[in-house]
Specification:
818 residues, alpha+beta, 6-stranded mixed barrel
Length: 818
């Protein structure tokens, strides 16, 4: 066939397909909507995975960029950088973002800052949009304070003024000279944080007190591998350098040997960014892939039924000379056109879903600003639509031509009932329905396991009460609050002012909140053998004000609370939790009392008297065991940045403005940030599981409905095809109950086949959920049995309607019509 003839035939096929689609608008709309759901979900997930997992980082030769997986102390950083030979260049960044107050024009605002070594842009191969990079001399102590800012901050705060270079901006009370603006969407080193400012000297990270910096492994090392060095060689060198460091500094905290739970390795920068979301994203992609298979099976089942009703049309056209390959092409054109229409609506659904995904915090997606519909994603949607149309159109098209066309023309459409039952069980329609049931059951079991996980999580007492508590961050300017006395006085006045607000019951200050990040330090009890510092137990440390326990309703089991008398001039005191009490006094609460004993903290030589014992708190979330911890009086050890928490009598969110006014009245340059209720903080620690459950539940509901619809349509069609057989059975004396049972057995047989297959598949697939489960095993008999029973009940309901219709057949009328 010539090119012109092929185009003409294709145009005719498209015109005929459009006519057939328009002829049955309800049927066509159902297929388009069903396909749209499957393609929309897959397109949205592909867009996310492509942006987050597949697309290379926007740096020069990003595959050569690596990062060490564990933090290092300043001395370790210096020795590693001097001795390593696997890198063209290495750099350092502080282990977390620094919240800094930007002041000087209007109300102060908080910006997120990253402390990086001066050569970080050179390593990444990135140049500023305007301005210059840091100079080597600007990375040294005492050098002028300079900063680079994000494009977002430049445009929003400085109106995109290109004369910004050399401008002085006051950050955390210190004037910084702006020397450059970084490209849009530049996020290094914190891909999940909107960083706005980059400054040098990571060793001066304000989250770590000056006296604790030499012993704290708070610095992260990154670098660019040499062209002839791979990850295995870099890891071999790292193991040697770590051994040398541990030999030279055996007591340092970062001299501990690597463990399976906390290894020290060289990892690609991209892998370090996406490691926490890789498994959830792949699990979701598998779920939407199953959903698409179910969609294809469902639509194919519907088209099989419709193809059977068009058998006479195909027979007539064949008798008039139409070639079978031409008829096959027309049917595939029709199914592909339906799929393309579904793809168009699917893209619209994906666009709406991506708008929500980019702003959702539940997955905490890195590189979320790169997620969008581009030509690559649209190409994927087009290819998926074409493939889907061919997949669900091929089986009906081939099935339509397996019939005896001569018999069709004679009007003999009946099938012997025994052979029909066998064909339904093993034929295309039966296999498609069983496949839908099996895949739907996999999704249903997965959602059930996550539901049980959430139920078990909610039964865990976190050790505090999160209701009616508002929290916010307060980061004090090091230049202004440069002594313990100044910081302690600020926090004391802040708590007093906030507690004076009508409706506030209690207010307190803490270093970190439960269910979030935590800081740990080595501890030891005096009067016992003192092992090296890095062999002592690590405990969570919190600096709190006296009303903190009352604010969070953390029970005090023994001893006393802190008082305003526990200040800098008083003897050092501490409150330990029951986990720490059991660690050093295994007989607790019996035996020797910890009250009155003394605690050695870190490298400090001055012991602290234990004056109280508090209940345990799940510092890392309810899905982890509580870590041993202790508390210090805020007045004796005030941090540079802290969390203010207040318990209110009514909705805590309504107190935000009142608290902000009290903070500004105390210091007009002091902003607050990260304002959240404690309930939201606790929910955020479990949000990934909740989101996974919500999505899997939604997918399983849609899949179950599609499977039930497929089962209903197949049984309904079988009743139509077996009308003559049913009429003969009734004429020979069969009771309506036996007819009803006959059809129900047919439906339940298909459902049971799918359930058995689904249980077998789910037993293997649910193992992938292990990392997200809590309090339940991947193969949980209760969940599997309940999911199977639920499907049986739904399948019975779906089969009952056509079964009643079959039982209501009037024998004489049916035989006369046939």
């Amino acid at each position: 066939m010539s090119g012109t003839g092929l185009l003409s035939a294709l145009r005719q096929d498209l015109h005929f397909a459009a006519r057939m689609i328009a002829k049955r608008p309800g049927f066509s709309a159902a297929i388009v909507l069903t396909v749209a759901i499957g393609i929309g979900a897959n397109t949205a997930l592909f867009s996310v995975i492509r942006a987050v997992l597949l697309r290379p980082l926007g740096y020069e030769n990003p595959q050569r960029l690596v990062v060490l997986t564990r933090g290092a102390t300043p001395i370790h950083v210096d020795e590693f950088r001097a001795a390593s030979r696997s890198y063209t260049e290495t750099g350092v960044f502080a282990g977390g973002a620094e919240q800094m107050a930007l002041t000087g024009s209007g109300e102060p605002q908080v910006v997120s800052a990253a402390r990086v070594s001066g050569n970080f842009l050179s390593i990444l191969g990135v140049a500023p949009v305007i301005g210059r990079s840091f100079l080597p001399s600007e990375d040294r102590a005492g050098a002028p304070d300079v900063a680079m800012i994000s494009t977002r901050l430049w445009q929003q705060h400085f109106a995109g003024d290109r004369a910004i270079l050399g401008h002085m901006a006051t950050l955390a009370g210190t004037p910084y000279t702006i020397i450059g603006v970084l490209p849009p969407r530049f996020t290094f080193p914190f891909a999940d944080t909107d960083t706005d400012v980059w400054i040098t000297r990571p060793i001066e990270w304000s989250r770590i007190p000056l006296k604790s910096r030499p012993l704290s492994p708070y610095l992260d090392i990154f670098g660019r591998l040499k062209p002839n060095v791979d990850l295995q060689q870099a890891n071999t060198e790292l193991a040697l350098l770590n051994h040398q460091y541990a030999t030279a500094h055996p007591a340092m905290l970062d001299a501990k040997p690597s463990t399976a739970d906390n290894p020290t390795t060289v990892r690609s920068l991209q892998e370090s960014i996406v490691a926490d979301v890789r498994i959830p994203l792949l699990l979701l992609s598998g779920a939407v892939g199953l959903l698409l298979f179910i969609v294809c099976a469902n639509v194919a089942s519907l088209l099989l039924a419709r193809a059977a009703t068009r058998a006479r049309e195909f027979a007539v056209r064949s008798a008039l000379g139409a070639a079978r390959n031409r008829l096959l092409r027309q049917l595939l054109t029709e199914s592909t056109l339906l799929s393309l229409l579904g793809g168009v609506f699917g893209i619209l659904l994906a666009w709406a879903a991506l708008r929500s995904i980019r702003t959702a915090t539940a997955l905490d997606l890195p590189r979320s600003s790169e997620i969008h519909l581009d030509l690559g994603v649209l190409g994927f949607a087009l290819a998926l639509s074409l493939l889907t149309g061919i997949l669900f159109g091929l089986a009906p098209a081939l099935s339509a031509f397996r019939r005896d066309l001569a018999a069709v023309l004679r009007g003999n459409l009946a099938t012997p009932h025994g052979r029909f039952r066998r064909r339904l069980a093993t034929g295309p329609r039966g296999l498609l329905v069983a496949g839908q049931v099996a895949l739907s059951l996999v999704l249903l079991v997965s959602a059930g396991l996550l539901l049980q996980t959430l139920a078990h999580l909610y039964q865990v007492d976190p050790g505090f009460r999160a209701d009616h508590v508002l929290t916010m961050s307060v980061s004090l300017a090091p230049a202004q609050y440069d002594t313990d006395a100044k910081r302690a006085n600020f926090y004391k006045q802040l708590v007093e002012r906030v507690e004076s607000i009508p409706g506030v019951e209690h207010a307190g200050v803490t270093f970190t909140l439960p269910a979030t990040d935590w800081a740990g330090t080595p501890i030891q009890i005096t009067g016992r053998p003192e092992p090296p510092l890095n062999q002592r137990p690590i405990a969570v440390v919190q600096q709190i004000s006296p009303d903190y326990f009352s604010t969070l309703k953390i029970p005090l089991r023994r001893g006393r609370n802190f008082t305003i008398g526990d200040n800098a001039s008083a003897p050092g005191v501490s409150i330990i939790d029951e986990g720490l009490a059991r660690l050093f006094w295994p007989q607790y609460p019996r035996g020797e009392s910890p009250i009155g004993q003394h605690l050695l903290v870190g490298s400090h030589k001055q012991p602290l008297e234990i004056v109280g014992i508090a209940a345990e708190v799940h510092q890392s979330g309810r899905d982890t065991e509580p870590m041993p911890g202790f508390y210090l009086p805020n007045a004796q050890s005030p941090p540079q940045a802290a969390i203010l928490a207040l318990r209110t009598k009514s909705d805590p969110a309504t107190f935000t403005d009142a608290v902000r006014r009290q903070v500004l009245a105390l210091d007009h340059n002091q902003p607050i940030s990260e304002i959240k209720t404690l309930s939201a903080v606790l929910d955020a620690s479990e949000s990934q599981r909740r989101l996974m459950f919500s999505l899997l539940a939604a997918f399983s509901i849609v899949a179950t409905l599609l499977a039930v619809l497929g089962l209903y349509s197949v049984i309904s069609y079988s009743v139509v095809e077996r009308t003559r057989e049913i009429a003969i059975r009734q004429a020979l004396g069969a009771q309506r109950g036996s007819i009803l049972a006959l059809v129900l057995r047919q439906g339940l047989g298909l459902a049971l086949g799918g359930i058995v297959l689904g249980i077998a598949v789910a037993a293997g697939v649910t193992r992938l959920l292990n990392s997200m489960l809590f309090g339940v095993k991947a193969i949980d008999p209760v969940t599997f049995v309940l999911a199977a029973m639920l499907f049986l009940i739904v399948a019975l309901a779906a089969s009952y309607i056509p079964a009643r219709r079959a039982a209501a057949v009037e024998p004489m009328a049916a035989l006369r019509d046939s």
